[in-house]
Amino acid sequence: MNGGILNNQGDIMITKENKEQIIAEYGTHAGDTGSPEVQIALLTARINDLNAHFTVHKKDHHSRRGLLKMVGQRRNLLGYLKKKDITRYRELIARLGLRK
Question: Which SUPFAM superfamilies does this UniProt record tie to the protein (predicted)?
């Protein structure tokens, strides 16, 4: 039932194991939770989960506000990463499939 690392289908929350997988895949070292890549990947996973949640629960406006806050936070982190290191930014958006 697991639809990949960034697709936690069926759940609104990321499981501990899934979170550890994302940290291992996008982090620079073990236990790296502060790098922008890891933070953006975790936010992307949560955003994807909430989008799946909204296909069923269309009137959940409280959670939709949380989704918009997460999207804004991810946008800020992406802007920071783009300003600091454009190559890391381009690699990350390609890996996550954020831009077309």
Answer: S15/NS1 RNA-binding domain
